Amino acid sequence: MLFDFTTLPTKDRYKLITATVVPRPIAWVVTQDAAGVLNAAPFSFFNAVSSDPPILALSIGGATGAELNKDTLANIQATGQFTLCLVPEDALDAMNVTAINLPPEVDELAEAGLDTLPSSKVAPPRIARSPVAFECETHQLIPLGGNTLVLGRILALHVRDDCVLDAARHHVDTPRLGLVGRMHGGGWYLRTTDRVEVPRIPLPDWLARKQL
């Protein structure tokens, strides 16, 4: 079946993209406005795009949730800072509460019963229940029509102590993080407990195989 994206309306393109580009990591973004009012919202149009400089990419907007997203974007535009937390399975219900389209003056973190911890380099705090949190400053904002692509430069990374295997070698116990990913539809998510290891093949090994 061919879907011609040059003729489809935005809502249908959105449905097809989110149904097929899976699983997607979830950016649980904490921002604050100039008065210090906190905002938290989850986004799944998100990923790491560079290590030098260290950049995370977050797309804000889309066919749904425009009202939900506008506070996050407005705060980033105003302050240039945010924390980006990853979502563990035991915080999935709380994350879902922060996705409710609450009025701007309402603190989503308080509504979800979430505690925060202070950041070290930016003003917005991080979510205490998240095992991974990135402190970011705005690197670039790129208009994409109905979306804005936020490129955030990582200033600091917090990993929960029990998820660090060897701090000196920067080895993280990734399975222990217990993170979830976004799937299709309005409410489907994925655990990261079903894994398969496929080791990289060195070029000499590959060439040797071809000669057999």
TrEMBL record:
<keyword id="KW-0288">FMN</keyword>
<protein>
    <submittedName>
        <fullName>Flavin reductase family protein</fullName>
    </submittedName>
</protein>
<dbReference type="InterPro" id="IPR012349">
    <property type="entry name" value="Split_barrel_FMN-bd"/>
</dbReference>
<comment type="similarity">
    <text>Belongs to the flavoredoxin family.</text>
</comment>
<keyword id="KW-0285">Flavoprotein</keyword>
<dbReference type="InterPro" id="IPR002563">
    <property type="entry name" value="Flavin_Rdtase-like_dom"/>
</dbReference>
<feature type="domain" description="Flavin reductase like">
    <location>
        <begin position="19"/>
        <end position="173"/>
    </location>
</feature>
<dbReference type="Pfam" id="PF01613">
    <property type="entry name" value="Flavin_Reduct"/>
</dbReference>
